[in-house]
Amino acid sequence: MRFHAEHRFGASPGAVAALLADPSFYLALAIPDLSLPEVLEHQIDGLDALLVLRYQFVGSLGPLGRRLVGPNQLTWIQKMHVSSSTGEGVLSFAAEAHPKALHGTAAFGLVAESAGTVRRMNGELVVAAPLIGASAERQIVPGLLRRLDIEAQALEERLGRG
After folding, report:
1. The sheet that has 38-45: what strands, in order across it?
2. Which of 17, 32, 36, 124 lies deepest, with the highest CB count within 10 Å?
């Protein structure tokens, strides 16, 4: 299922990109139903950055979610690639136990505007499960978008503090 998100920040694209690639930002970011992440990898190569995190869903899964993950805990790997020079990036995520069954990717751009930066993100979430995949996607995407909104609000607050 395709999704779109747009967020505005009162800082430059370079400042937003730097914070999106900063592990300390995510280690202090409380998101409902998620554990704080474990940093698996953090690389900076000039103006390009890669941040790899592991999250665990700690909320309550409904019957559909239980069918998807079975008795296992739902954990996933999230990768953030971002370039401070171009303002472009890719966010990808996949279930750790079954990456082909539950995964997604979103390309985003950080564009300067008069009041700061706008992040425009276009992505797709895939639940590759016969009969229930499309229904599961419709249930998951609103939560994904809420979490992106929470992240954006925290980014704006942190950028405002300098």
Report:
1. 2-9, 116-127, 102-113, 88-95, 75-83, 48-56, 38-45
2. 17
Q: What is the pTM of this model?
A: 0.91
Do residues 18 and 111 lie in contact, with contact meaning Cβ atoms separated by under 8 Å? no
Closest CA to 21 of 111, 75, 83: 83
pLDDT tens, position by position, 100-118: 989 999 999 999 998 899 9
What DSSP string describes 100-146?
TTEEEEEEEEEEEETTEEEEEEEEEEEE--TTTHHHHHHHHHHHHHH
Strand partners, 102: 127
